[in-house]
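Appendix C reproduces, verbatim, an entry submitted by the partner laboratory led by Prof. M.T., so that reviewers can inspect both the input and the predicted structure.
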Amino acid sequence: MPAKRPHPPTVRLRRLAAELRRLRAEAGLTREDVTERTGINEATLYRIERSRARPQRRTLVGLLDTYQADEARRTDLLALRSGSNAQGWRQPYHAELPEEYTAYIGFEAEARTVRNYESLFVPGLAQTEQYATEVVRGVLPVASRKEVAQRVQARMERQAVLTGEHPLHLRAIVDEAALRRAVGGRDVMRGQARHLLELMAEPHVTFQVIPFERGAHAGMTGSFVHMDFPDADDPELVYLDTPAGDLFLESEPEVRRYKSLFEHLQAVALGPDDSAGLLARVAEE
């Protein structure tokens, strides 16, 4: 029997890890110091602080005692630990998807705002089922029919975050190349362009296009996603889908760099109204 794959970290587990790192820094202790005082294995402490492991309750209590955390902080972090495994978005077939992708789905489901720049694709949250199917088939040419269906189903389920009482705020920017590439043919692209126009009518969705005429721009190095979360204490996150594998960036300098890059691309792109005009022309063509 293959080993059971661990669940990817949740936002709550990441916040717990960040708080524990902060408490240790405030106490002026190294990991070696904590190991000497508590007996917690240094490798275990590293995994806890990098949100790769959920601490046992007694381990967390021992760390809070060592850091002399006040009562309010103790209550908050113990509550975070209790809910750190909650992943209501998971479906049985998600276990067959890549771990990094299921982690991304989980973070997206809990985010307040997603800022997504794409150079070659329509953002996943804005894709039609027909477009998504053709994209998955093209990007994963050796995938089985079942694998393609699972990927497309997951992508369609993800879009539920754009509906409901408190929908996700989507800020999307694409290069014009993403709209001009005939994924699936003219009918598929016409349907995709019309779907984007419908989404743009929603107050929580902003869509901008960087036209070819703008020439070279900073986004040509690759796509990225920046997320923030409803609780200001939850650390922001940047996701990169690269040929070498998926990356999650969490350090403040890295997050700040991509936030600045997104703002730069917003300034380079057409405004929402002009972007809608370009989309309408694409749909007509």
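Residues 1-7 have pLDDT under 50 and may be disordered. Additional entries are available on request from the coordinating office.
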